[in-house]
Amino acid sequence: MVITRSRFGALFAAALLTIDALAGVATIEASSTTEKAHMPRSLSILEFGGPNVLFAADQKQNRIYAFEIENIPDSTRNLDITPYNLVGFGSQLARYLETDPLGVTYHDLAVHPVTKVAFLSITVKTESGPRSELILVTPKGEIRSVDFRKLPFSSVPIGETPDSDVTFWRDIPAAALSVTDFEFDDGILYIAGLSNGEFASTLRHVRYPFEDSVEMTSIEMFHTAHNQNETRAPIRAMSIATVDGRKTLIAAYTCTPLVTIPASDLSDGAHVVGKTIAELGYGNTPLEVLTLTAYNLERQPEEFVLVINREMGANLIQMESLAKAPALNQAFSGLGDTLGAHGTQVPFAGTLQADDQDPQQILLLRRNIDTGDVDLISSMKGVYFRLSDFVSEYTFPDYQYSKSQEGTQKFHNMIKPIEGYADLVIK
Amino acid sequence: MFILILNTIVSLFLSGQLTFLEGQTCTTKQQPRVADLYPRATVLPKNLLRFYVYFDHAMDSASSAGQIEIRTSSGKVLDELLLQSRAPLWSEDGRRLTLILDPGRIKTGLSHAHQPDSGFKVGEEFTLVIGQGFTTETGCEMAAVFEHQFFIARADTTPPNPKNWALNTPSAMSRDPLTVSFKKPLDHLSLAYRIRVKTITGQSIPGALSLGKDDEQWIFTPSEVWAEGPYNLVIDSRLEDLAGNRPTGLFDAPVGQRSTRGASAAPLQLAFKIDHP
């Protein structure tokens, strides 16, 4: 018997039940804050500030919002170590929203730190115009839209405040920031972004609960492939981790230098020179930088940095090698090559968004290159691939593992049920 | 009545004033157009950093994907010349889109291998094309494709230097404009937001801004008459020219040379005096 990909798809589709009501739906009171003038309008980048706070960037308001999500979702339901196997999720979501799959634009994905429910910020095309939505998804494929406009919130501006003293020759909105990444650590929200009015490497940071002002640090780094001090290149993706005992910002830039900066250097108005520790290849935009603990080849837990890229495969870098990496300060002209602490490549092609799911898994929102649909799937740390992505001889029920393949068989029999194929286990 | 409405719709459709899009009807008025494009100059430096495109309607921010092209005079599309961003750079009101030329492509000093297609060539003509697929928030497509032709001149590697600016000062007791000539065009948002006239105690003078000579002149007309005495032209250190160079340094600095400092640099001041008429 030949097992085709469509059979895999059908199995997944059967498991995908769209249940409108997630458990523990709370009645959400309208915002009691006095910020009525700053009611949120759209969501892009997401980040959790603990189980009860969701940070979101709103480009239409040029503000960062902190939504109180205490009862959303039900925190008594812990879905830890439950894999997401939602192949064809994009079509399911479109059906739920009563729209076309191409009518959904995905902005970001964040996994709730306790319940492991996936939060997605999306824009849906409707007849009355685009509508921003906050979507919650469980590993079972239960989908729910939460009206973020009714959540209690506090907010802080991130763009420029236009002055009223001077009028212009035409209506000219002030420079606004398009947030590219957030990182929340130790009570501070770090905000990386691209301004539509100035080209700057400014990293913004604000304490939560929000204070009045957003502090700024400008960061300089050396770009080996460009042979330049790229003083003003904006950070595209970042993470905070403890590197060599110091809390450190790990920042990835376009085309693709990886830079470390001690978090203690990031003070208001400071100008910091980052340490370029890796060159991850030209013609590439980093999507996510995740720091995670995974089992290494010696079956010991080890800290890693995972850089998920838009154009290239993901880079898995041992934290230890990142900490030991010398600063790259020489020009480099090897086209397509990598340099420094670039680690190994892992197969995450097609990833649109990703987040650390739990101690064992990374959650990926991934374009399925066979169907064109969007899948919401977990990838096991340490393995970084899904067996069900491949049709191979191992998939045949009459496949005979040889004695020397005992380890392979054990691995396959472990991973098949995790990916939803308990029936394909070969004893 | 129904027949009358139907007849009107049919005649509007036939005359091209009405289009049907995805089950939606858009009148000519509802169809968006490019209202303005900056820089206005038609000769632009090879290391141009950005374009600003203004629409006359609030636009659907997701509709820009695949709608913008830069073409050579022979019609060849220059791939990946514009910076890709997770979120397109729209203004809050959804009417202005900022296009950043990918700094990885316009930078100097890259080995040839890093520029498989060198992008802009000095002396040649290029066209920025804004496709018809841009839609308003309510789903109306552009009335027509918008095209803007420009020529490329050599890269601008001179930081804007306020000391070289020429000030044409008006007389006291008049509301005549103060004209500042830069000798080269400056960035659109910098012209609006980075230069102010202040008293020597730092108080901002209210007034109206206009521009002249393809954005090489900044013209300030005060709301009240000028008083006799000293003033300052205060320049935010983030002021940029068309290539992103700032008074504090170049956008693209050679290795070993200090480039532009960040947000911390102090504003620059140009003192001038308003004399008795």
Provide a quick synopsis of the model.
By secondary structure, chain A is mostly beta strands. Chain A has 4 helices and 29 strands.
Outline the structure in words.
Chain A has four helices and 29 strands. By secondary structure, chain A is mostly beta strands. Chain A has three domains: 1-157, no CATH class; 159-346, no CATH class; 393-424, no CATH class. Chain A starts with a helix and ends in a 9-residue tail after the last helix. With 277 residues, chain B is mostly beta strands. Chain B has helices at 2-14, 103-106, 188-193; strands at 18-21, 24-27, 34-38, 43-45, 50-55, 68-72, 89-90, 96-100, 125-130, 146-153, 166-168, 178-181, 195-199, 207-212, 217-222, 229-235, 253-254, 268-274. The longest helix of chain B is centred in the N-terminal third of the chain and has 13 residues, at 2-14. At the A-B interface, strand 10, strand 11, strand 14 and strand 16 of A face strand 7, strand 8, helix 3, strand 14 and strand 17 of B. Strand 10 of chain A pairs parallel with strand 14 (207-212) of chain B, so a sheet runs across the interface.
